[in-house]
Design goal:
InterPro entries: AAA+_ATPase (IPR003593), ABC_transporter-like_ATP-bd (IPR003439), ABC_transporter-like_CS (IPR017871), ACT-like_dom_sf (IPR045865), MetN_ABC (IPR041701), MetN_ABC_transporter-like (IPR050086), NIL_domain (IPR018449), P-loop_NTPase (IPR027417). GO terms for molecular function: ATP binding; ATP hydrolysis activity. Keywords: Amino-acid transport, ATP-binding, Cell membrane, Membrane, Nucleotide-binding, Translocase, Transport. Homodimer. Forms a membrane-associated complex with FtsX. This protein folds into 2 domains: 2-247, Rossmann fold; 256-340, ACT domain (Alpha-Beta Plaits, 2-Layer Sandwich), CATH 3.30.70.260. The chain starts with a strand and ends with a strand. By secondary structure, the protein is of the alpha/beta class. The strands form 3 sheets. It has a 6-stranded mixed sheet with strand order 6-7-8-3-9-10, sandwiched between helices. A 4-stranded antiparallel sheet has the order 2-1-4-5, covered by helices on one side. The protein is built from 12 helices and 14 strands. The longest helix has 18 residues, at 178-195. Bound molecules: adenosine-5'-diphosphate. Adenosine-5'-diphosphate binds at residues 13, 23, 25, 43, 45-51.
């Protein structure tokens, strides 16, 4: 079941006084996020990602289309009705947005106060949430006494306070170092697995998508230009922008410039082999080369694990008799994709 469903959604910002042109931030986007998904939305700055998030949690109204959240078309709702919809959506931010004058516990309690939970219930819920994010000992601390990772964990606890079914994470790890990023992503995975919360992750970092997302949509100039299960998009990106994002985490076929450097450093023929899933047996491929007495060196590339499935490209420098190499490459072509630029 789709918990968030966008149908031909558009958002045009009216012209500002400073420059006279209107801005189409979202251009005819249709997208389904299913219950239990961790759906990554990736794109460069200005692609429309934050606008999309603000439309889903109704902080901003769309100018066209339908936005279904938990079975309700929020584009058609009045402000008063929207408040109830927003209670079902948690949100975490790049800059954490904690209240500096409140302790950790009172930050987490804040949405419960707004929603009118009785005091005893609030205390119990806050304790439970701080335990879940591993910050029980920081209940009385203030935000500026915490590290970035701890602040985001408070942000997550606060976002979960009213037991939302959807969590929106807008560049939630962009201000964190890589190690802390992975801690926070691991926590989000637990939120998804243990509470069944559907998570929408907005990011410009492909690494975040690779680590956590099950599905991904690539945005460019207000449009979704590609979407699908993360493994499919990573292993076979269709749009040029998607391929550029994938290349930030997966080394593919070397570019012309990289190839020139490899040729300078290594004798022999340079070929790239694609390994996708267990469908391609590495042992068989390298066995063919050894059996034919073709010497090989791995000079570029790597194997990534995406959604628990191996994928990658290995570029080899092959030395031996040309006809022998041709013959063995023909064999290997029956096992996997071979790319050679001569
Ligand atoms: P992203 O989150 O991918 O960086 P945004 O959603 O912030 O992209 O922005 C998409 C486009 O909409 C950009 O061209 C941006 O300048 C424009 N935009 C965003 N918010 C506003 C606004 N409040 N008023 C006018 N233009 C806006």
């Amino acid at each position: 079941m789709a918990v968030v469903s966008l149908r031909n959604v558009g958002k045009v910002y009216p012209p500002t006084a400073r420059d006279g042109a209107s801005v189409t931030a979202i251009d005819d986007v249709s997208l389904d996020v299913e219950a239990g998904d961790i759906y990554g939305i990736i794109g460069y700055s200005g692609a429309g990602k934050s606008t999309l998030v603000r439309l889903v949690n109704a902080l901003e109204r769309s100018t066209s289309g339908e936005i279904w959240v938990n079975g309700q078309n929020i584009a058609a709702l009045r402000e008063r009705e929207l408040r109830r919809v927003r209670l079902g959506i948690g949100m975490i931010f790049q800059q954490f947005n904690l209240l500096g004058s409140r302790t950790v516990a009172r930050n987490v309690a804040y949405p419960l106060e707004v929603a009118g939970y009785p005091k005893e219930q609030r205390a119990a819920r806050v304790a439970e949430l701080l335990d879940f994010v591993g910050l029980s000992d920081k209940a009385g601390s203030y935000p500026d006494q915490l590290s970035g990772g701890q602040k985001q964990r408070v942000g997550i606890a606060r976002a979960l306070a009213t037991q939302p079914s959807i969590l929106l994470a807008d560049e939630a790890t962009s201000a964190l170092d890589p190690e802390t990023t992975h801690e926070v992503l691991a926590l989000l995975k637990r939120v998804n697995a243990e509470f069944g919360v559907t998570i929408i992750v907005i990011t410009h970092e492909m690494d975040v998508i690779q680590t956590i997302a099950t599905k991904v949509a690539v945005m460019d100039q207000g449009q979704v230009i590609e979407r699908g299960p993360v493994f499919e998009v990573f292993s076979n990106p269709q749009a040029a922008a998607s391929a550029r994002f994938v290349s930030t985490v997966v080394k593919g076929v070397p570019s012309a410039a990289e190839l020139a450097v490899l040729r300078e450093r290594h004798a022999g023929r340079i070929v790239t082999l694609t390994f996708r899933d267990s469908a391609v047996d590495q042992k068989a491929v390298f066995g063919e080369l050894s059996a034919a007495n073709v010497a090989f060196e791995v000079v570029y590339g790597g194997i990534n694990e995406i959604q628990g499935r191996p994928f990658g490209h290995l570029t080899l420098a092959l030395t031996g008799d040309d006809p022998v190499i041709d013959r063995v490459l023909d064999h290997i072509r029956t096992l996997t994709t071979v790319t050679e630029v001569r």
